[in-house]
């Protein structure tokens, strides 16, 4: 059934709101699972992938917990908890399986258009941090998902792994590094455009850019009535849909609130912006080929872990350092300063006030980041590049992230770092809220949407789901042979063998 337009109204089986990687991934799943369903996609901006999915608006790290220290906290008794790292890594392996399927079936002609092998490293200094990293390495290296991880405190070895970081460094400093050659850089903007190109090439899918969703409401006819404005023609229409996915990044929260579903009550958002220093000197860029992650400051949100980051964007190498966190009341980079105030209501005010009271370290951290001078930003960079010069770097603004705030019986409200699917009880609408690891786990997150919203179809879809994601229904961490087989297969299919 294709999309039908009658005057100012139209209908579709599925409406996807937002032109980012989440909507693109869900659309690709549904196109494969149910090719007779009509899909209408609405994006407010001129093109898809211009907000959080854009290559310059996120770090592009294939988040697999190989280098991100915030996924492996040290407990009070000294041991390092790797449970979240295992979950994050396995989720990324699911995404890799889905991307591998896209390559195998020709939906994506060349996977190197969006994914590139780049070593992932964790870098610390000082006795206490070195001891932590050693314990982390000992815990992770025993797990099959982290096979091949290396550890070193030898300056000569570190100089081979990360020459730019070791160049001009004062001798005698206690340093430690872990390295994994299984790491990747992912251009999620390129991936998103490839997926929407695939969707738009099929008659059952229609992509509408410069279309803003103003409101949505479940009507007695059982359908969602989605009010859409064509920003080019300045006209409005109502689209009737059986299922709606709200995947508009930070813009998802206001629309979720407008939906009126009980599951959205009490949910709020806290926006965090970010900036990076981008290297302008090709000679310096050529000296570094890795994603080198350090430890976050006390009170810093997870997406603010400092890293010296090799990027591959449209075939060109780039080098970023950051992020430097900031605060804006916008929920999107191209959003409104009124986004945060308008999102506050009687249902979430208590939770938001409780979070403000209980998260003073985060507030203090953001104030310090906003007040930083260029000299202070350069000093932070020099922890990673000791001889960094201001004239070689420029400050660029990254994308907005909105952290989820929810009611809590004990605390009144909690600030959640991560991603969360909010779906109605009847499965007719779902929204994605939150941030890191975000895009890296788009495939498993969209599988969650399918399971929450299309439970009656899962038995019928299961063979196809297992074709797209061979580990579907299993845990790789519980099946060592399958873990190795699928990792080797996706490495080959995605052309990740050569560094």
Which class in CATH terms? Answer: Alpha Beta
- Low-pLDDT runs: 1-7
CA radius of gyration is: 23 Å
Q: Give the helix/strand class.
A: alpha+beta
Any idea how many domains? 1
| SS element count, helices | 15
What is the total tally of β strands? 21
CA-CA gap between termini:
45 Å
Strand proportion, as a percent range, falls in: 25-35%
The CATH homology group name: FAD/NAD(P)-binding domain
> Residue-averaged pLDDT, rounded?
89
- Characterize the biggest β-sheet: 10 strands, mixed
Oligomer: single chain
Instruction: Estimate the helix proportion, in percent.
Output: 25-40%
CATH topology: the name is: FAD/NAD(P)-binding domain
The CATH architecture category equals 3-Layer(bba) Sandwich
Shape: globular
What is the element layout, followed by pairings?
Blueprint (H helix, E strand, L loop, with lengths): L3 E3 L2 E9 L3 H13 L5 E5 L39 H22 L10 E3 L2 E6 L1 H14 L9 E3 L2 H7 L1 H4 L8 E6 L3 E3 L1 H13 L4 E5 L1 E8 L5 E7 L4 E12 L5 H8 L8 E12 L2 H4 L5 E3 L13 E7 L2 E11 L12 H5 L5 H10 L1 H11 L3 H9 L10 E5 L3 E8 L3 E5 L2 E5 L5 E6 L7 H12 L4 H11 L11 H14 L6
Helix pairs in contact: 1-6, 1-13, 2-13, 2-15
